[in-house]
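Subject: complex prediction, re-run

Hi both,

The earlier run crashed halfway through, so I resubmitted it with identical inputs.
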Amino acid sequence: EIVLTQSPGTLSLSPGERATLSCRASQSVTSSYLAWYQQKPGQAPRLLIYGASSRATDIPDRFSGSGSGTDFSLTISRLEPEDFAVYYCQQYGSSQWTFGQGTKVEIK
Amino acid sequence: QLQLQDSGPGLVKPSETLSLTCTVSGDSISSSSYYWGWIRQPPGKGLEWIANIYYSGSTYYNPSLKSRVTISVDAFKNQFSLKLRSVTAADTAVYYCAVSGSNYRNFDYWGQGTLVTVSS
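This time it finished cleanly. Structure:
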């Protein structure tokens, strides 16, 4: 089973700042199978990035994903008030889906 | 566009079986384009993948839950279902149904989630 470790656990930033979230895998992940989600309180997660770097439908271009192998990242270039939320990475491999434990982006 | 609607009892007694159903609209559950799945989230915690099923009937389970879980499809009703046996308080969570595309294996669409509490 591939374990995903996200860091930091919490990121305290101000609107307009840049956020960089990390997702590290215990084994190499096929880039096509690495995704990022945003979740706000009381809501289901929303797909942001798939295939490590492709934005999902209607996702603003301030969100970008990158990485390969065991190290992936999600960058929010300029935080908008609606971006403060919890973010999860997710991978598929060896007939298993797994999620990271999440990074909370909070207002400083 | 796919839409998912999950349903089921909000309260289950310890040692009993949790049963949830997800109704799919917008496409056929027999499509080869999708894996249909369940994910849960205990209160205040992160997401945990439970199981997926492909249109062919192939099933995929989280090893930590495999002995207690069954996922199945009802093509006539365009629904898929989850059964989790011998539940305990640790199984209290919001349960989401979701669909994963066969190309990228991410969860594109999600149901609204059902809070299931395990309590006597």
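Chain B has no helices and eleven strands.

- K.
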